[in-house]
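note to self: dont lose this again. the chain is below, predicted strucutre after it. 252 aa total, dont forget to put it in the shared folder this time
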Amino acid sequence: DGVTEVLAHRSDNLRDKFIEIPCSEDYDSHKRFADCTPRKCGRGVTDAVVTREEAERIRRIAERGLSLGGSDGGASILDLHSGALSLGKHFVNLYRYFGDKIPDIFTEEDFALYRDVRQRIQQRIAQVFGISSSAMYLTKPTFFSRMNSTGAKTAHDEYWHPHVDKVTYGSFDYTSLLYLSDYSEDFGGGRFVFMDADSNKTVEPRAGRVSFFTSGSENLHRVEKVQWGARFAITISFTCDPQHGIGDPLLR
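---
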């Protein structure tokens, strides 16, 4: 795996840590948007945008939603926008499948918190990369993930493969992850790994920590396999292309 350097230990309390890296050529083959398309690339970690208490409240939203389903394999997904929910080896639409139960599962306060946190993360990314927050748009998929040590049953469960978000998801320009549980306390393994030519750089999750980065191949990454426990996170991503923008999820 090469030499591994820890960018953020779980025990750190980071106000802001940012490492600038050269942009890949990926952006040259996409339409450029003023005030948004990355001119400066890199990766950041902050523990100062979302509190631990807020992260715990958001994790409870994920736990309640995932209690309706869950993958047979090690990776379960809940997408409040599209309604996609892992169920066995497949996905169902949460809102269609469990429509009558939704008011018992989620509240308006849950969605307001989700929206507030998303806006704060968006503002921090804009500030760090020197772009306009209003030129960024939330994009899909934006989803909760719960990972555990259960063996993979389908390709969707194989979350540990190295990938580039811009290649996997096209619309992504900036990716963020809000961690909702603690490395080495709630789960083992499951660190986030940036795979650089010279070494690997890891982020150890902690509840309330936000990791964010430009989505091109300058940030090839993977997640280690979870060895024990359950790792909760939410992926919130942004595009510069208004045609790929989506609204915040609404309680239906």
